[in-house]
Structure formats: structure tokens, C-alpha cells
Amino acid sequence: SEHPGCTTTVLFWFTGDSLPVVHHQGAHTLWDLGSPTYWFLSWLPAVAVGVFSALVLQKLCFPYFWTDLLFLWKVVRYGVKLELFGLMSSVRTVLDRFMEQAQRIPDKPFVIYDGSVHTYREVDRRSNRLAHVFLRQLKLKKGDCVALLMSNEPDFLNVWFGLAKVGCSVAFLNTNIRSRSLLHCFSCCGARTLIVGSDLVDSLDDILLEDNIQVWTMRRHSEHSKVHTLLDRLDSAPDQPVPAELRATKSLRTPTLYIFTSGTTGLPKAAVITHLQSLKAAAGFWAFGGTEDDVVYIPLPLYHSAASLIGIGGTIELGATCVLKKKFSASQFWNDCRQHDVTIFQYIGELCRYLCNQPKTEMDQDHKVRMGVGNGLRQDVWREFLSRFGNIKMCEVYGSTEGNLCFMNHIGKIGTVGRSNLFYRLLFKYDLVKYDMIKDEVVKDHQGFCQRVNRGKTGLLLSKVSSISPFFGYAGSKQLTEKKLMRNVFVKGDAYFNTGDLMAEDQEGFICFRDRVGDTFRWKGENVATTEVTETLGLVDFIQEVNVFGVEVPGHEGRAGMAALIVRPGLTFDGKKLFEHSVRDLPAYARPIFIRLQEVMEMTSTFKQQKFQLVQSGFNPSTISDPLYVLDYRQKSYVPLTEQLYQSIVSGEHKL
Predict the structure, then answer these.
(1) Which is deepest, 21, 30, 279, 286, by most CB within 10 Å?
(2) In whole angstroms, how far apart are CA 58 and each of 64, 70, 422, 518?
(3) For the residues 328-355, what does the mean pLDDT come to?
(4) What angle do CA 182, 124, 169 make, to 5 degrees?
(5) Which of 459, 95, 595, 500 is nearest to 261 (CA)?
């Protein structure tokens, strides 16, 4: 007995051919060993041991089973909700969600920018005023496409929402592009109206030459005869909503945005962003555990999908507050986070490296940041970031603007871009296939089909196109859309989206990024289309042939641009002329950092320019016999890359 001084006697006896009966004298009860109660009690320990053993086995062999299941269930439930809205023809867009939040929490800060606070109600009403101006003054109609060229500021959102309220699709233009690229972006999405920020009007010289383009700016006065002003018309506009039928849509697959992404065509491509994609992206913070009490820090450019779709859309979905930064500043980052009680921030890998390079202070872990959401974070920077700034959950997301596949590292394992498992593979079909880096092509078997790589091996990531994972392509060119697809990959008639990324999946299902293939590399957080750079440099009179690629630089994310050149016979290399041409016609991130002069341009067996060996050899003058040059902004020229200069670049003394 459990009680001192209490004696318990248990008697067993048999009654005929029945099972034993237990008489418990202390409690004066009989237990019939043939009763269900007895058998339940007798089997209970065995069941408990079995369950415990199963849990131990699961923990050892499948440690992420329940975490994976719960996370995927959360994501699938959201996706099913979206599909049900579509089936019932009651599509609720991100804009609708914003207007709901403006009704629910009108006085809550939505955007904090440069010390000023803009509530949900204020943004809603100002975008209403703009919508009325767009209808009455600009004569815009439902279905029109309008190009938006603005820096990060609250009026970017006001214009975006105002256009959406009158049923217009919006093309976000990269503020770094100029001249020919800008005109191309403007026209390929079918836009005839451009709205430009007050600080970017002076970059519109080529645009203004086009007679069929109407240009409006967020100013009260304009010195340009072809640039019309919006702010002077805004004061008299009503702040009441425009008719709801203007923004209404019956399909989740209706285009709502065009976001430009670098490609291999020589010019940016307008990725079609539908309401479905916008809504999926807006659920990112929520899926990772964000709440309406969070404050989100957005230092990335709004013309990219990360800041606009995930950042702004995610803030709206939660009903949270965002701190919008015009431009990222490593020195101001943590002060901003402390001042505004930031809890979530968006990043690219380069941003985190800049933060780690800042001088250490006693305040490094004095903040409320609990989560970072982004991509491109290197393992070494990841570890250093956590060690220095505290236990922040870094949530890597993999996916391209136009892609039909997304990985999310909800576990937080360092060095991986996402997580896959049995459940994920049942819903989203993707494969890693063998790729020959030297020949720059997919490896196929004797039947002409791709070959899957084994677990742990590096392969080209392909994502199957289906009703669950559709690919909406690019505006203005079916050829560009078709070029991103691979057909007859494993069987006749199938179609896969080619990500252009080399990835590896380990034995536990974690996805690791290895490299990019083809004609695009990443530098300073931007994708650089090598064909665009090649065509631009090819206009220089002394250049006969150009081969552009990216090379790794110690301590830097991505790859720095290098151009291998062949100089025309009878002419000489002119570093100053090349510098002037690059600065005038290329955005800063796309300008080649290094120049390599060659006499012969090597080709692959399929007559493509050989890049692999050039990429591998890097930019070390002691191991490369070809003349090398480096971009120098102080001398406004490309200057010879000496051994001393090389060492200063590698050590980080010379800034690129």
C-alpha cells in the first residue's frame, strides 16, 4: 500500500472453468480477470511502451516528422482556402485584404517611413484620392497597364493601391535601369502611362521622346512640358472609395502585376504576377509564425517581389506594421530596429554580411528582432550573424519571381534554402537532373530523357508545370515563356520549369543551393543578365567580341562581373572609354568589375561561349597570363590589376 500502516491482502482463486478472480480485501472489490476492464488495464502498459517506442523511433529516424506535417498542413489549408474562393467566384485579393484591415484596424500604423507614421485608414483614403484622379484626369480604364517608376516611399504603395482600385495592372520598373532597357520594360507589358517618383524625373530623357507615352509625377510643379503633375490634383479629389466593381475579379489567375527579372535575352523580362501568386507570397510571414503584433523592417527595393509581395503583402495579411526604408543602411539598421521595436526583418545574404562587417558594439544584442525572412545567406555569414546578434530565427525562402516552386526552411537549419519531405513531394513535383557544367547542358540518356541525380548529388532543379504549380510566363513574348520550359523531360508530353539553379538535396530532405547556370549571375543582390551586358559592351568601337560571366570574390556574396574581351585588329584597349560607356548605359550592379583581354574566345562543342573554365580561373593575375583590368571609380577608368591590387581586393581593403 502507498499509505503507511495499511495492509493489503490479495487472494486468487478459481471458480470452475472460469478465469481467476482477484479479491482485493483492502478495497473490498472483486476483479474478474475475464472482464474488459481487466484486459484494458493489463494491455495498457504494453500499449504505452509501444507508443513510447514508436515516438523514440520517429525521433531518431524522422526527427522533423511532426514539424513538417504541421507546417505543410498550415500551408495546404491556406492554399485550399484560396482555391475555394476561386471556385465560388468570390476572389479576395491582397487589395481586398488591405481594405478589410483598414476597416478593422483603421488607426493602427501601417507604414512608418522616415519618422512619419501612416495608418491603415490614411493609406486607404490617399489611395482612394489617387484612384479618383486616375479615373478623371488620366482617363484610365479597368484592364489598362500602368508603369510605376518610384523609389521606396509611402506613395509607392498609395499609387499601387490606387491603380489596383480602378482595375489597372501595375508594372514595377527597376529604378536602376536607363535608356534602352527602360523603354523596353515600359513597352513590353503594354503600358501607355508612366507614373514616376519626384526624385526620378531627371532619368526620363529617352522616355520623354516617345509621343505615345503620358508621364505623370508625384509633384505639384514640373519643369518638363511632357511631365504632368499629380499632387496638385490630389487635394480636390474625394477620399471615398471608387466603385468596387472596378477592382473586382473572377479569377485568381488574372494578372495584377508585372515584375521584371533578368534573363538571357539581353533585356529584362516582365514576369506575370497573378492574384494567386500575390496571395501565396502574402502568406509567407504568417506561415513562419508572424502575428499582427509584429513590426516588419523592409529595406529592400519595392520593385522586387521580395519587398512588395512578401514584405508589404505579408504585413497586410497579418494586419501588422512595417518600417519602410528608402535604401538599406548598415550603420542605421539596428538603431532603426531598436527605435521602432522591429521583430521581423527582410534580408538578402549580402545585407547580413554588411551588418556583420559593422564595428562591434555593446548594443549588438539589444533589440527585439526574433525573425529574419529572405534568401542567399551563406553558412559562414549565417553563423556569425547569430553568434553576434543573438538567437534570431533565420527563415530562408527559395523561389524566383516567375517560378512555380517555393522552398521554405521552416526548420532553420543553417546553410539550407529550404526543406522537402514526403508530404511536400506529393503536392509539388520537382526533380534534380544531371547537368554538365563544362558543356553547359543537361545530360540525357540514350532515349533523350533527363537523368535524376542521387541524394546528396548536385543537379539542375526542374519544377513540373501543373494545375497546382502553374507557370504564368512573361508578358509580351510567348517565345520567352517557352524558353523557360523544358518539355519531354522524363516522358513524352511533360513540361517542367527550368529554374537555372544547381541544387542538392541531402539525406534528410534539406535543399542546398550550389550555383547558377546559363547567362545569369547575382551581384549586389541583383540578377545580372550577361547577354544584356554583352550587347551593351559590344557597342564600344574597339571591342570585337565579349564573353561576360561572374567570378567569386572572397568575402562577397554572389559573383562579381567579369568580361573577357577580344580587341579589334588595329585598335587598342581604352579603359577610360569603356568606363564611361559602362557607367552611362549599365546599372551599377551590372557593370563588369574585371576585364580580361584574350586573343581567342573558347567555344563549347555546341558553339556556345566557354564560361566554365573562365569562371574557375577567377581573377588572380599571378595565375592568369591574360592582361587583367579592374574598375576604378576614383580614376574613372579600368586600370591594370596588379598583384598588390589583387591582394587588397582579397583582403577587403579595396572596396568593390
Answers:
(1) 279
(2) 9, 15, 14, 41
(3) 94
(4) 35
(5) 500
- Which has more pLDDT, 49 or 529? 529
**Segments making up each domain of the chain, as ranges:** 10-61, 94-398, 422-516, 520-651
> Which residue do the cell numbers 532515349 mark?
447
| d(C-alpha 200, C-alpha 159), whole Å | 15
Q: How far is CA 30 from CA 6, 19, 134, in A?
A: 19, 13, 87
- CATH architecture entry for 422-516: Roll (2.30)
Q: Is there a contact between 530 and 521 (Cβ–Cβ < 8 Å)?
A: yes
d(CA 337, CA 321): 13
Burial class, 515, CB count within 10 angstroms (exposed 0-12 / middle 13-18 / buried 19+): middle
Q: For residues 253 and 106, what is the distance between their CA atoms, to the nearest angstrom?
A: 30
Residue range 573-591, pLDDT digits in tens = 999 999 999 998 898 999 9
**Confidence tier at 606 by pLDDT (50, 70, 90):** very low
Are 601 and 542 contacting, i.e. CB atoms less than 8 angstroms apart?
A: no
Size of the chain, expressed as the number of residues it contains = 656
What does the alpha-carbon distance between residue 298 and residue 150 come to, in Å, rounded to a whole number?
16
Beta strands in 349-425 (DSSP E): 371-375, 393-398, 407-408, 418-419
Rg of the chain over all Cα atoms, to the nearest angstrom: 30
* pLDDT tens, position by position, 435-452: 987 677 899 999 999 999
Query: What's the rounded Cα separation, in Å, for the pair 385 and 380?
Result: 9
Tell me the C-alpha distance between 313 and 316, whole Å: 5
Among 388, 339, 346, 344, which residue's Cα sits nearest to residue 369? 344
Distance of CA 467 to the CA centre of its chain: 22
Q: Residue 591, class by beta-carbon neighbours within 10 Å (0-12 exposed, 13-18 middle, 19+ buried)?
A: buried
Residue 545, CA distances (Å) to 4, 517, 536, 593, 609 in order = 98, 21, 11, 18, 10
Q: Which residues of 154-193 are buried (b: 16+ CB within 10 A; e: fewer)?
A: bbbbbbbbbbbbbbbbbbbbbbbbbeebbbbbbbbbebeb
Share of the chain above pLDDT 90, in %: 58
d(CA 158, CA 161): 5
CA gap 232, 218 in Å, rounded: 9
CA distances from residue 295 to 70, 85, 310, 400, 522 in whole angstroms, order as listed = 25, 29, 14, 25, 29
Q: What's the topology of domain 94-398?
A: Rossmann fold (3.40.50)
- Within a 13 Å sphere around the CA of 8, how many CA atoms are in the beta-carbon half? 12
Residues 6+ positions from 134 with CB-CB distance below 8 Å? 140, 146, 162, 163, 166, 168
Cα–Cα distance, 494 to 142 (Å, whole number): 36
Contacts 24+ apart (CB under 8 A), 435-438: 435/459, 435/460, 435/502, 435/517, 437/517, 437/612, 438/604, 438/612, 438/613
CA atoms within 13 A on the CB side of 17: 0
Q: Are 504 and 459 contacting, i.e. CB atoms less than 8 angstroms apart?
A: yes
Q: State the CATH architecture for 520-651.
A: 2-Layer Sandwich (3.30)
Instruction: Supply the pTM of this predicted model.
Output: 0.80
